[in-house]
Structure formats: structure tokens, C-alpha cells
Amino acid sequence: MNIQSSGITFVERNSVTPQRYSIETMTGGVALFDYNNDGLLDIFFTNGAAIPRLDKRDPSYWNRLYRNNGDGTYTDITAAAGLSGLGYSMGVATGDYDNDGFVDLYVTGFDKNQLFHNNGDGTFTDVTARAHVDGVTAGIGKAWSITAGWIDYNHDGKLDLFVVNYLSYQLKSAALCHVNKLPAYCAPNDFMGSSNILYRNNGDGTFTDVSVASHIADYVGKGMGVAFADYDGDGFDDIFVSNDTFSNFLLHNNRDGTFTDVAAIAQVAYTDNGRTVAGMGTDFRDLNNDGRPDIFHTAMFGDSFPLYANLGGGQFEDATTKSGLTNETSRSTGWGTGIFDFDNDGNKDRVHC
Questions:
Q1: Three-state secondary structure of the chain
Q2: Cβ(106)–Cβ(114) under 8 Å?
Q3: In the beta sheet, which residues pair with residue 65?
Q4: What is the biggest distance separating any 2 CA atoms in the chain, rounded to whole angstroms?
Q5: Would you say 148 and 198 are in contact if contact means Cβ atoms under 8 Å apart?
């Protein structure tokens, strides 16, 4: 069965403009999750918006939810589910934040972040304002959010929310770049970075921004990917953030509600030749079955995709060349990635796109 006969008709629209705004280069998050608890994975796509209004009044800009019919076909139920969305969307994270047995959605974006509560009846409700997770930071405003992830960082049985922010960038004030006097997309180095956000789940449907108290706000980067794992075996999950043309973060969970960036000490901030790369999608899993989670992330053409092998004792080594990834990936560009045992042979495989 091909994609046309599957019923999936989604086409990403990034609203390319003559001005070549940076946001046009990055849309297209996707999530596979079972929204209706029927045992089948459904598909959610994020989409762009009309520039410069940044709205989705044209349905071709809607985010889309496709219900898995169980026979190789899907049905677009976006309108009925209430998931068309607002603003220029980027990424999506799935998690049951209120422990009601139904998976909820958090959608990140350039101008809007949205938390959609799964009502358990096939519909979702936008509870962003009530939950206090709009991505707005006091004194700074709405950050350009690329992705997010759910993590119970304080072991209270409730999923907390980590939001990854990218460049300090506004359409009205963004510098326009040119190559040979022709409009061109600016490089990330042309802009300052942003700090990320940690929202603590209060257990009553609301969240508290603890970015400052947790020291997450201390670290300014250009985040593109995030993954969680307990890399040092202390029982608390840590956070890896892959940054674009900026040193990566390895945020060690201090078990007291605070985090410390130990990326440089752990040797995952840079490649083995001391360079940064255009870090994008990432995963944090045990690749070699030694019981310790390793770090892999994608990058741009010419970078190669770094692999950091966990040596134990809080230390990693850049195993990119040793594993053959330098030759395999140096002429590729990768946005997302995942590490899974696809063929059930006991060894984890990598996929990237």
C-alpha cells in the first residue's frame, strides 16, 4: 500500500518568502502515539503558518492528526479532535501529564506553544493558559521553541516538561542576509541563543516555571534536540541538549531540584577535535549493550554525526570515527534520529532523517 492510498495527505507548508526568514527552514515535527487507546499508533504532524501573520486560517497550514484504522489506512480527524493549532508550529512531545490514562500533546512553535489535554473521547482541549506553559519567559517574552520532552525530574510520579529554545529571533527585527546580493537564509551564528525552560508539574493541571530555581536558565544555547537518560546510574534522569553551532549541554540532575551542565567535563560538549557542529535530533540510549546510555545526535553536511560512548564514571569518549560514522555521515544532513532494535536481534539500530 502506498502513501496515497493510506489516506495520509499531509503536505508541510513553511510559507517561503522573498525575505528568507530563518523560521522557514525548520518545521515538521511528528509524533506517533495511541491517542484513543485502541492499541494502534496514530500520527500527528506539525505545520507552519502564513508569514508574516503567523496564522493558520488557511487549513493547508493546520497541524494534522491521522487516526490509524488498523487496515493500513488512516483518517484525518484534525477538525473533530480540535488539533488544527495556532501559530508557526515546530515540534511535538507526547505524554500523559495528568495520569488519566490518555496521552496528551505539547506542541512547540516560533510564536505559540500549546498544551492539548486528551479528553479521552477523541477530542483535545487547549489548556495552555490554565496550565501556564505558553513558553513565555518574564523579561524576555515568547522564545522560539523547537522541541520539548516529558521527564519526571523530581521523582514525584508526575511528568514535568522541558522546552528546548533556539535563537533569539523576531521577524520584525531579524537581520536579512544576502549572498551575491541575493536574499539568503542567515546562519545561526548571526543570532544570539536562548535559555531553555523547565516546567514543574504541580499535579493539579498546572505547571510552575522553575527554570531559574533549577539553574536551567543559567545555560544559554541554540537548542535543537533533547533526550533524557540516567547516564551516571544515580537513579535520576539527566538531560542532553544538542545545540546548533554551539557546545552541547549535559545537564546533570543534582537530585535536589537543580541541574549542572557537565558537558565539557563529560566530554560531550564538543567533538574530539574541539569543534561544535550543527547539532539537531538526538537520542540517549545504550547502543552497545553495556548497561550505560550513550549519546548520538545528527548534524549538518560536513560535520558527521557524533556518537559519544559512555565509559562510566561520568565520562564519555567521541566514538564517531571508531564506529565508522565519520565516513558514513559526513556527507549527510540529519534532522531527527532514533535508536531502536528494529529487527529484534538484541542489538540497537540507528535511524535518522
A1: CCCCCCCCCCCCCCCCCCCCCHHHHCCCCEEEECCCCCCCCEEEECCCCECCCCECCCHHHCCEEEEECCCCCEEECHHHHCCCCCCCEEEEEEECCCCCCCCEEEEEECCCCEEEEECCCCCEEECHHHHCCCCEECCCEECCEEEEEEECCCCCCCCEEEEEECECCCCCCCCCEEECCEEECCCHHHCCEEECEEEEECCCCCEEECCCCCCHHHCEECEEEEEEECCCCCCCCEEEEEEECCCCEEEEECCCCCEEECHHHHCCCCCCCCCCCECCCEEEECCCCCCCCEEEECCCCCCCCCEEEEEECCEEEECCCCCCHHHHHCCCCCCCEEEECCCCCCCCEEEEC
A2: yes
A3: 44
A4: 56
A5: no
Q: Provide the terminal-to-terminal Cα distance of the chain, rounded to the nearest Å.
A: 22
Alpha-carbon distance of 247 to 241, in angstroms, equals 9
d(CA 203, CA 208): 10
Q: What is the pLDDT of residues 293-328, one digit of tens each?
A: 999 999 999 899 999 999 999 999 999 999 888 888
Q: Which residue in this structure is represented by grid cell 490554565?
A: 130
**Dihedral, CA of residue 305, residue 254, residue 152 and residue 127, to nearest 10:** -90
Residues in the chain: 353
**C-beta of residue 139 within 8 angstroms of C-beta of residue 146:** no
Q: Give 132-153 pLDDT, tens digit per residue.
A: 999 999 888 999 999 999 999 9
Q: Which amino acid does the sequence have at 164?
A: V
pLDDT at 2: 59
What cell does 133 get? 506553559
- Whole-prediction pTM: 0.96
- Provide the pairing of β-strand 42-45 with 197-201: unpaired
Cell numbers that stand for 341 in this block: 532494535
Amino acid (one-letter) located at 289:
N
Question: Whole-angstrom Cα distance, residue 310 to residue 8?
Answer: 40
The alpha carbon dihedral of 43, 47, 118, 282 has a sign of: positive
Tell the residue number behind the cell numbers 560512548, with chain if given: 309
**Segment 111-137, tens digit of pLDDT:** 999 999 999 999 999 999 999 999 999
Q: 243 and 300 in contact (C-beta within 8 Å)?
A: no
